[in-house]
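QA checklist item 7 of 12: single-chain prediction sanity check.
[x] sequence parsed
[x] length recorded as 336
[x] structure emitted
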Amino acid sequence: MLLDTVFLLIALSIILVSAELFTNGIEWLGQRLNISEGVVGSVLAAVGTAMPETLIPFVSVAFFGSRHGEEVGIGAIAGAPFMLSTLTLSLCGFTIWFYAKKGRRESRVKANRTIIMRDFSFFILAYSIAIAASIFHLSDTLRSILAIGLLLIYGLYIYKTFKHEGEVGAAPEHLHFARILKDKPERLGVILPQVIVGILGIIGGAYMFVNFVEKLAVGLNAPAILLSLILAPVATELPEKINSFLWSRSGKDTLALGNITGALVFQSCIPVAFGMAFTDWRLDQGTTLTAFVAIASCSLFWYLMKTDRLKAQHFMLGAIAYTVTIALLITFGLHD
């Protein structure tokens, strides 16, 4: 079991390094194509940072078609929205509050309300559809139809995001491949290979991750779905959201929050559509609980933003919701 844990950590390291290559390349691609800051935050950066977590369910179902394989996949699918809507947003809120106290930035949340509220709305709609499909035990055909509907919803989201005008953000500090090859970072011939290498590394790391989560679950006699629900998003998404904390510190709240809320929309549409179409999509009690917490959290933030009452401290409440929910999952074993 100790060896499985070591290999699990190695797999996560591969995922994180590959994710850094992918995200860095995607940011430079946005700069190269002269794309607005809102699109970079809510689409390119959000998809980039969500990629490791997204590929875990694809790999688990495609290569590990056993019961544990599906459990790991569903756990990873549900774990991301839960963590993003609670723990990640709370850390972002804490960053705003902390640096405001130090006089490094304003205390109010300076985000573009149209962009962030739109993201919350799309997430609440898409994830509510997914949870309803599980609760009402829909047939394979109906679930497949709804899965296609989620893909169309994400397509509409992308259209509205690109349609919204905004300023082009500042270029990232460096492109990793350009620094290694001593080449110009704005060349597509350097950017695209880095993105491809990042994707391949994420796939390989995800394959290893699923394999050793299965073995660890057997060794610990713990549900694979519980391990993946907690471990996968914290290890693969949370470190990649450091960008959001840095942007919050600098007062770039649209980029900071858009990076998180855009990932929420992506995670509630693309991986969920895959899960609905290619698994039996029977969420257990614990996974359903995390989904309700995620929807409730985003609904509250949407309302506070709409009424212009949203403060950094409100986001910080998400850490409490995350901690209480995880405690309930572990204490009462809500996985039957």
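[x] summary fact logged: The chain has twelve helices and no strands.
[ ] second reviewer sign-off
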